[in-house]
Every structure is written in C-alpha cells, then in structure tokens.
C-alpha cells in the first residue's frame, strides 16, 4: 500500500482533479475498513478502477500517469494508440488533456474487463475511446500471454526471473502494428497527430524494430517504456525510429524513450507541462 507520505503527496497534488483526490483518499479508507473487489476513481469524463487484489500496483500505476506525468506530451486533437493499456489510466489521462481519439490495446482479461467498464462510463461523446482486446506485435497470429500476480506484469516475453510470479497463461490474438498504423493513418481526422505509447513489458524490441520504417512515417510522436531485459538496447530503438524521421527529445521518466517528428522549420517540442 502507499506510504502515508506518498498518499499525502497525491491527495495534495493540485495537478490531480479534486474529486479524483477525494476518491483516492476514500478508496484508501474503504480498503482498510470495508474492502470490496474494486474501487471507483472518477477522472476527467470517465471512471477508473483500482482492484483490491492488485491495489498497490494499480495505485502506483495511476500515480505515475496522473501525478508524475511519465507519458505527458501534447495530446490536444491527437489520435493516441495506447499499446499495453493496463486499466486505461493513460488513455483517460490523454483524453483529459484533449486527445480526440484513443484506442487502447489490452489483451489480459482482468485488466481489459475493467478497462471496458471505464470506456462504457464515458460522459463526453465528442471524444472517441475504443478498446481492442488484442496484443500488438510485428506480425499477426496468436501467442501465449504470461499472467503475473501483479496486474502490470503480464507479458508475451517475460524474463526468466518472473517465473515465480506467474499464475497462468492466456491465449491472445496478436495484430501487427504496421496494419494498425495503416488503418489509423487513413481514418484519422484531417491534420490530427498520431501519438504511439508503448508499455509492453520487454516486447518493445519486436514491435518497434519489427515494424518497417515506412510504417512509422505517419506517426508524429512515440513514447516507449524500455525494460532492461528487452532483447535490444534503447539505442537500437532510437536508431530505427530516427530512420523514419523522428527525433529524440527529453521525456518525463528515465525509462521512457520519447521521439517526435519536428514540424518543418521547428525544433522538437519540450515535454507537455500541466497548467496549474
């Protein structure tokens, strides 16, 4: 569970909406005094959910997105591919910052079920939020998803050290990122930027390097969560994306690789900053 200091940091953080902070404080009290399977946390125009059994992981994941801003980039008017969506925390955050259309890709059953509830709770019809219950890879097919005790750790390519935490596997459908980008590139609103966020527990090498350079030409911004057990280096990922015209820029976290396509004659933008 979050320490008292970390809880205070969140509930006094004015970057987070007041009703969200109140709900997080209420959830902390409920889980101690009257536990329930899930705890509802309103955020923006939707409801997000923390699982009781995975509360610590969900709480830290939500904090990293809405309080620490690890994925913060300019989202206004953008089409966002949220690959490795977990329970939809990043998607809801991107929508709250003005994204026009978010597609969340999450293959794990428990996470996807709660994410689907969040999508269904939307009260703002002017923005699109869709869920695809599939994994994203370099080629189409089926794969074994290794399911871990912690709700963040489900992976197609887990490190051997995670074996002690594995509680089962799920057979999931895999769609190629190149096909997703081709589809979104033709369907997006005129002039809308495409932002790709990847947090797929070590499979980033397969997805990034296995997606042809020309497929990345429609993408304006990429945020990749990198992992030390991945089969390639950050430099390998950067080199591949630079070949598609994307340039590295400072990110909100040391394990986040961020690249952006500069507008003609313009430097790469600094990370998005919240207005307080």
Descriptive keywords:
single chain; 276 residues; alpha/beta; Rossmann fold; seven-stranded mixed sheet; three-stranded mixed sheet; 12 strands; 24% strand; disordered C terminus
Would you write up a description of this structure?
The protein has helices at 4-11, 18-33, 55-66, 89-96, 109-120, 177-187, 204-209, 234-242; strands at 38-43, 46-51, 79-83, 101-105, 128-132, 135-137, 141-148, 166-176, 194-198, 221-225, 247-248, 256-260. The protein contains eight helices and twelve strands. It has a domain at 72-260: Rossmann fold (3-Layer(aba) Sandwich), CATH 3.40.50. Residues 264-270 and 272-276 have low confidence and may be disordered. The strands form three sheets. It has a seven-stranded mixed beta sheet with strand order 5-4-3-9-10-12-11, sandwiched between helices. A three-stranded mixed beta sheet has the order 6-8-7. By secondary structure, the protein is an alpha/beta fold. The radius of gyration is 18 Å and the shape is globular. The two termini are 28 Å apart.
